[in-house]
């Protein structure tokens, strides 16, 4: 697939049903609010985000290169986020939507209509299910995009450009600039008000839906409060420090420059929080034992009666939030259930039971200490004796960072089993040098498509063209790809710690560079903060710098947590406690969020009832969930959709995928088709079965009529027997 084909494939997912106009603006609430005292908790450790993975330039063996795609509206004096909520605004003509949640916003340049930043919110009852709307089980659902409830526009907006500033993981500031002045609009995940600060521009709030009723309903400490009821019967509250008038059903006009704040609905909670607005947000956290805490702190401007703004939290936040300020305000999110508003300037969440003890050995919730019978060890040794003979270098040195990573990880696990479980020096000495040699090809950057350092967006990417290797050079899937390499390196370094630092830190520097690209705890001049993992959504986004009408997406939940697990093990080897703590915290958050939004037990109450029977999400977008994959459904039925949420099975799999869910998925979706699957996807499904029934899983891998064609190229029979045997003995 070429670049054009890949881009067109993403664009085809931009389902544009319904075009309404949206206009929101907010003025100049300039006085700095005194911050309330920070929440105090039992966790007093230092911030785990203040410990960089490394500093300084990436290794020089990564050739420097300017990217062919230039971030639109951005100066290049800092790293630009590639996989987060705001990235659509930096791509193509900047008109693809973003989702701050619960609101969506986008730049609108539609001919003959008001230019500006459009905004909207959709209710759950507006969701479109398909392909058959009335089917008992839906394959996909999405929210109608681009309904312009309001457009933040201005007088004389006929020659406007949008620039983006202060790029952070959870926030960016947009400016609509004309020769006369500008409108500044902070865009922050979870922001309660859409705030527009007009400088030397007269505000125009356009609405393609149209105002059925517009009236002033009060005054809040110097701010005028208006209520707008649109023709779709949705009520919005608009606060302003200037007078607003309804010029016609589609236009509300301000009398001069100022600040406007808009929110969905009407509530005293809004009245008590209006006047404050966030300008940015940052993450911090601490871990103490198996308890972790993470804090989303909003930098606030302005004043409000309560001293706080409104922040919207997703369901996985709501279960563990400890910072207070809960209100009775609720709004639907696009794909993650009902959001709740908190009157606060920070959200603090505390996760219990971090997987601090899930390390190298086979593990699951019901078998936390691996044990092996003599017969199991004998069978593992037989499998290893055959698999160590394979051509590791030849199999791994291919043109894909993703596929090569799977191969390296496969053989690293074989070496690990030979050394730590079999304790067989002969087998270890046969496989270990081959795996080291294969990894060192990549560490020396001598693979078929070497990695390069992109000086434009700032990251480490493949030198292959963007349509190759799943879009790696356009920042797709870095956590998937690099997670396999990092995990493989950790496994080998656990056997031979000195190897990491041999040849002038060759392999160590390679792993550190990949980790910085994906998961830097803070942005620096060379990499953005936390490229892949979203600390607000609670999982990563795999989708890079391809514009998409349904926002960022992720397909493989399991390869997401596999990256965090690989980072955890590498940190354990190099004794980087802060990195290991961040990985453990990520895994705890993912366990909660994924079991709400991606892995569906029968008792799931977050996703629509007609979608739960699918058992897994398929592809999770910001605005849509599609029970599918980018590469098909399956040879027999839907096995690819389920398998991509399973691979690879490692000790961390059972921490995320509980036995209750795994059994339900097996009984309802997989048992009827498993015997018909002819290829490696069968092995993926059978190894996953061990998470609730390790005995039958082990027996399948242990059978005498073994067929190697029925396991994936990233799997080994050696590890499969070791894992299933270790938790079933």
UniProtKB/TrEMBL annotation:
Residues 372-721 form the Glycosyl hydrolase family 81 C-terminal domain. GO terms for cellular component: cell surface. Keywords: Carbohydrate metabolism, Cell wall biogenesis/degradation, Glycosidase, Hydrolase, Polysaccharide degradation. Gene3D superfamilies: glycoside hydrolase family 81 endo-[beta] glucanase (1.10.287.1170), Golgi alpha-mannosidase II, domain 4 (2.70.98.30), Immunoglobulin FC, subunit C (1.20.5.420). Pfam families: Glyco_hydro81C, Glyco_hydro_81. Residues 70-364 form the Glycosyl hydrolase family 81 N-terminal domain. The keyword Hydrolase applies. Residues 24-43 are annotated as: Disordered. GO terms for biological process: cell wall organization; polysaccharide catabolic process. InterPro entries: Endo-beta-glucanase, GH81_C, GH81_N. This is glucan endo-1,3-beta-D-glucosidase. It comes from Candida theae.
């Amino acid at each position: 697939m070429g670049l054009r084909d890949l881009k067109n494939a993403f664009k085809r997912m931009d389902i544009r049903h319904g075009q309404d106009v949206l206009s929101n603006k907010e003025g100049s609430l300039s006085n700095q609010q005194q911050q309330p005292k920070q929440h105090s908790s039992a966790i007093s450790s230092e911030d785990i985000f203040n410990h960089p993975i490394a500093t300084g330039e990436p290794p020089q063996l990564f050739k420097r290169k300017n990217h062919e795609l230039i971030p639109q509206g951005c100066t290049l004096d800092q790293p630009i986020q590639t996989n987060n909520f705001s990235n659509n605004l930096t791509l193509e003509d900047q008109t693809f939507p973003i989702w701050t949640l619960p609101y969506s916003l986008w730049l609108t340049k539609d001919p003959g209509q008001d230019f500006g930043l459009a905004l909207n919110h959709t209710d759950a009852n507006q969701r479109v299910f398909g392909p058959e709307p009335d089917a008992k089980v839906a394959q996909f659902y999405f929210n109608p995009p681009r309904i312009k409830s309001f457009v933040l526009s201005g007088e004389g907006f006929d020659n406007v450009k949008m620039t983006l500033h202060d790029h952070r993981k959870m926030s960016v500031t947009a400016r609509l600039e004309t020769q006369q002045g500008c409108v500044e609009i902070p865009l922050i995940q979870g922001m309660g008000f859409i705030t527009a600060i007009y400088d030397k521009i007269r505000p125009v709030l356009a609405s393609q839906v149209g105002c059925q009723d517009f009236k002033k309903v009060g005054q809040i400490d110097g701010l005028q409060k208006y209520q707008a009821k649109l023709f779709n019967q949705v009520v919005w509250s608009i606060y302003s420090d200037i007078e607003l008038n309804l010029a016609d059903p589609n236009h509300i006009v301000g009398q001069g420059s100022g600040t406007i704040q808009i929110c969905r609905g009407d509530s005293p909670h809004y009245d008590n929080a209006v006047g404050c607005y966030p300008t940015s947000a940052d993450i911090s956290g601490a871990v103490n034992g198996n308890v972790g805490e993470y804090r989303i702190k909003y930098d606030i401007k302005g004043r409000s009666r309560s001293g706080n703004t409104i922040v919207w939290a997703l369901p996985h936040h709501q279960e563990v939030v400890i910072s207070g300020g809960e209100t009775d305000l609720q709004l639907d999110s696009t794909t993650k259930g009902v959001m709740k508003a908190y009157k606060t300037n920070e959200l603090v969440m505390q996760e219990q039971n971090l997987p601090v003890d899930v390390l190298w050995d086979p593990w699951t919730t019901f078998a936390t200490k691996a044990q092996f019978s003599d017969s199991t060890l004998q069978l593992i040794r037989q499998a290893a004796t055959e698999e160590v003979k394979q051509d590791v270098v030849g199999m791994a040195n291919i043109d894909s960072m993703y596929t090569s990573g799977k191969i390296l990880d496969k053989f690293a696990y074989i070496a690990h089993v030979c050394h730590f479980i079999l304790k067989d020096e002969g087998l270890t000495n046969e496989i270990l040098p081959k795996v080291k040699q294969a990894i060192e090809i990549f560490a020396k950057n001598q693979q078929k498509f070497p990695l390069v350092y992109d000086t434009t967006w700032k990251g480490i990417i493949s030198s292959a063209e963007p349509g190759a290797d799943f879009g790696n050079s356009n920042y797709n899937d870095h956590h998937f790809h690099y997670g396999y390499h990092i995990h493989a390196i950790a496994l080998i370094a656990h056997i031979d710690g000195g190897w990491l630092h041999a040849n002038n830190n060759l392999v160590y520097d390679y792993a550190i560079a990949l980790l910085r690209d994906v998961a830097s705890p803070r942005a620096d001049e060379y990499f953005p903060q936390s490229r892949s993992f979203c600390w607000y959504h609670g999982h990563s986004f795999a989708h890079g710098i391809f514009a998409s009408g349904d926002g960022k997406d992720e397909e493989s939940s399991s390869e997401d947590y596999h990256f965090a697990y690989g980072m955890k093990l590498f940190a354990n080897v190099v004794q980087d406690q802060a990195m290991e703590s961040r990985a453990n915290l990520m895994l705890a958050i993912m366990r909660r969020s994924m079991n709400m939004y991606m892995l569906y037990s029968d008792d799931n109450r977050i996703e629509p009832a007609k979608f739960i029977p699918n058992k897994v999400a398929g592809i999770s977008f910001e605005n849509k969930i599609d029970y599918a994959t980018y590469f098909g459904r399956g040879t027999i039925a839907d096995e690819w959709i389920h398998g991509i949420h399973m691979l690879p099975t490692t000790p961390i799999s059972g921490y995320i995928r509980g036995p209750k869910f795994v059994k339900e998925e097996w009984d309802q979706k997989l048992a009827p088709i498993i015997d018909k699957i002819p290829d490696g996807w069968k092995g993926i499904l059978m190894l996953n079965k061990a998470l609730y029934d390790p005995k039958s899983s082990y027996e399948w891998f242990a059978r005498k009529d073994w067929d190697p064609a029925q396991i994936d190229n990233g799997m080994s029979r050696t590890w499969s027997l070791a894992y299933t045997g270790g938790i079933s003995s």
